[in-house]
Model the fold of this input.
Amino acid sequence: MDERIDILTSTGEHTGKTCLKSEAHQKGLYHQTIHVWFYTDDKKILLQKRASVKKVFPNHWDVSVAGHIGAGEKIESAVIREVQEEIGLSISEADLTKIGLRKDKITHPNGILDNEFKHIFVCKLNQKLSELTRQVSEIDDLQLFDFSILKDSEKHGSFMVPNMNHYYDFIYKELNAIRL
Done:
């Protein structure tokens, strides 16, 4: 979906301008996204297999839920909306723990310039995997994996979204710090 998003400076400040997500990706304009990593009491994380029709990283395993923050949308509202859209789960702000903000600048082989500030959250998964409803246009599969998958750099290039080892290391550290 080509939604309107807020444009940021390279230091993360709002410019007061908006544009379509496709335009931001074409011009390399900075914008905001959310990432939510769902975890279980037995040290597993929920990963989604990106749909084969996705423009970037199709068929790769990735963060539980991710998406763009709409123009004027509150960060936590975007998280709640994206979680509902992508995996059919209703959560509240109280369920979320923000663990970081990451600036990424990625040039994809297809010409997409993905310059974004990721607001990163963790959330305990209290539902069974079978109770989740995946958004077919975004996700081909949902599975639980042991936290250790984040440390297996051999799999990152072919299994998970590649070239994200520092990010996965950060998530691994943060998830292990949670008292389960």
